């Protein structure tokens, strides 16, 4: 089975299983097209929390499925491919957080949602790229803060909030690879374009001199901004899966990726065929041990409440 027939079968099985399909904006176009909801990490966490469906098929990466399982423990969460990981989430171990906490007993740990459940269980609050600035700006002024694991997002949050943050030196291999040299020529070629940049990018805060009015946004923030802006052209710095949504939701505008080969191989492991098999065979169930989930839930509930 392929193409339209496969998509129809996915939709039939979805109804039969009383399932909802949630997809991240970096997913393959054909996967986005069968989803009930496509969004960023924050939007997906909220949808997972509020859904009444019995089964959540998570078309994204493992930490996102774990987040859904923690926020809605009554539901069965399926990840169509267990190899859909995240290099950023994998870079930080619980021991790294424990070592910092031992040195800073009064410290606050802010964990980007791109972390494993065991790290979230040690955090005071989780954030996504959509609400990190707001969450950090509300934290007490007199306590040390450890921001983990993305150093580029952390630097952006520190700059905007004016807060001093201890940063873990983690990075996403896809976004860290989007650098200044990829940017210059494109901005010169499209002088009237607006510049949308994901805060995980290696060409993050340090490249703002090239375009000081750049908009640092989550993936969903990019879609919302592009739809509402007067500009007709946008230079886009993030994983290229976002282009499908941008073109779909703002078809009259033009989008130019800073790095056309910025592809997250983990996100692309989820194919329509695997979504079909996931629903057919109810695989692969993502479970988080209750003791870990209970502690991580506090930090995640604090996250979904902001922004
Ligand atoms: P968003 O929450 O902005 O969609 O980002 C998720 C992610 O994994 C970026 O690499
Ligand atoms: Fe993780 Fe980077 Fe892929 Fe996002 S793009 S899921 S941060 S590896």
From TrEMBL:
Q: What is its EC number?
A: 2.5.1.72
- Annotated [4Fe-4S] cluster binding lies at 86, 172, 264
- GO function term, MF aspect, one: metal ion binding
Instruction: From the Swiss-Prot or TrEMBL record, state where the protein is found.
Output: Cytoplasm
The residue range of the signal peptide is none
Which reactions does this protein catalyse? iminosuccinate + dihydroxyacetone phosphate = quinolinate + phosphate + 2 H2O + H(+)
Name the residues that bind iminosuccinate: 24, 41, 112-114, 129, 198-200, 219
Entry keyword Iron:
yes
Q: Which UniProt keywords apply?
A: 4Fe-4S, Cytoplasm, Iron, Iron-sulfur, Metal-binding, Pyridine nucleotide biosynthesis, Transferase
Gene Ontology annotations for the cellular component aspect, listed alphabetically? cytoplasm
Cofactor(s) needed, names only, are: [4Fe-4S] cluster
What Gene3D superfamilies does the record tag this protein with?
NadA-like
- Which one GO biological process term can you cite for this protein? 'de novo' NAD+ biosynthetic process from L-aspartate
Note describing how the cofactor binds: Binds 1 [4Fe-4S] cluster per subunit.
Function of the molecule:
Catalyzes the condensation of iminoaspartate with dihydroxyacetone phosphate to form quinolinate.
Query: What NCBIfam families does the record point to?
Result: nadA (TIGR00550), PRK09375.1-2 (NF006878), PRK09375.1-4 (NF006879)
> Which HAMAP family does this UniProt record tie to the protein?
NadA_type2
The family this protein is said to belong to: Belongs to the quinolinate synthase family. Type 2 subfamily.
**Name of the featured protein:** Quinolinate synthase
In which organism is this protein found?
Thermus arciformis
């Amino acid at each position: 089975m392929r193409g339209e027939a496969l998509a129809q079968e996915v939709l039939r099985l979805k109804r039969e299983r009383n399932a909802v399909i949630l997809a991240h904006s970096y997913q393959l176009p054909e996967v986005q097209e069968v989803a009930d909801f496509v969004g960023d990490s924050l939007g997906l966490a909220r949808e997972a929390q509020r859904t009444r469906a019995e089964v959540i098929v998570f078309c994204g990466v493992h930490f996102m499925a774990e987040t859904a399982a923690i926020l809605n423990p009554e539901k069965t969460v399926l990840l169509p491919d267990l190899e859909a990981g995240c290099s950023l989430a994998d870079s930080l171990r619980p021991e790294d957080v424990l070592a910092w906490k031992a040195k800073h007993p009064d410290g606050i740990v802010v964990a980007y949602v791109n972390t494993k459940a065991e790290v979230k269980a040690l955090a005071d609050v989780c954030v996504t790229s959509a609400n990190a600035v707001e969450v950090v700006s509300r934290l007490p002024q007199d306590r040390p803060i450890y921001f983990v694991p993305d150093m580029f997002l952390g630097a952006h949050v520190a700059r905007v909030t004016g807060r001093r943050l201890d940063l873990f030196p983690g990075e996403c291999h896809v976004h860290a690879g989007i650098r200044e040299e990829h940017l210059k020529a494109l901005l010169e070629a499209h002088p009237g374009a607006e510049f949308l940049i994901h805060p995980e990018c290696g060409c993050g805060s340090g490249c703002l001199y090239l375009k000081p009015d750049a908009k640092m946004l989550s993936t969903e923030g990019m879609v919302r901004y592009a739809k509402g802006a007067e500009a007709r052209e946008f230079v886009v710095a993030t994983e290229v899966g976002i282009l499908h949504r941008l073109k779909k939701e703002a078809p009259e505008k033009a989008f130019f990726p800073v790095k056309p080969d910025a592809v997250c191989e983990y996100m692309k492991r989820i194919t329509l065929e695997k979504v079909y098999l996931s629903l057919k065979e109810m695989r692969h169930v993502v479970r988080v041990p209750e003791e870990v989930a209970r502690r991580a839930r506090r930090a995640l509930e604090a996250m979904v409440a902001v922004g």
